[in-house]
Amino acid sequence: MTRSDPGSPDPDSPDSGANEDDAVWRDLVARLEGTDSGPAPGPGAGTSAARTFRDFDPLGLSVPPQLTPPAGTRPAAGGGAEGSADRDAPPGPRDYEADEDEGAFVPEEPPSLASSDPMTVLAWLGAVGGPIALLLSAIFWRSAPLLAVVGMVAAFAASVVFLIMKLPHEKDEHDDGARV
């Protein structure tokens, strides 16, 4: 039986490829960072034409585009992002505020719930409150009488039927749902 040198790694041990893997990993990281950590181990180790990922840029994305402010905006009052250490950087998309528009859309006030039909409000309470009451009774009131459970189910069903019956029966041919 022949024994190998105690200083050399055992080819059957799990750590035999660890040093080689580490060297490959360091080379990969160095190439991605654009620095040269020496020749890569393995094939092509002596080539002087080391390329980085920035060398392959068919769309020209490695050069940042010059940002111009969008039309209808002005520079922000702070002159850039607060806390920005690099004041020489080109302005970003959030370094501008929108100009005040006098003709801006202002939505109309929704109708008050107090002025709505009391039956509709009661139906919505039954449609939403029925399942919630059933869930709470299943959690906290396990010995609820059958009449209470049937009443909650009936209130939910009656509320949903009322709300469905209140929907318009015909579609207006001239209304596509958009409002100007």
Overview of the molecule:
With 180 residues, this protein is mainly alpha-helical. The chain has a domain at 116-166. It has 3 helices and 2 strands. It has a two-stranded antiparallel ribbon. Helix 2 runs antiparallel to helix 3 (146-166).
Radius of gyration, in Å, reads: 36 Å
Spans of at least 5 consecutive residues whose pLDDT stays below 50 are: 44-48
Helix content: 25-40%
Mean pLDDT: 74
Main pleated sheet: 2 strands, antiparallel
Percent strand: under 5%
Shape: flat
Kindly state the number of beta strands. 2
Order of helices and strands: HEEHH
Strand order of the largest sheet: 1-2
Structural class assignment: mainly alpha
The gist of it:
This protein has 180 residues and is mostly helical. The chain has 3 helices and 2 strands, in the order αββαα. The chain has a domain at 116-166.
Write the layout of secondary structure elements.
Blueprint: H1 18-33, E1 73-75, E2 96-98, H2 118-140, H3 146-166
Helix pairs in contact: 2-3
What are its keywords?
3 helices; two-stranded antiparallel sheet; 180 residues; mainly alpha
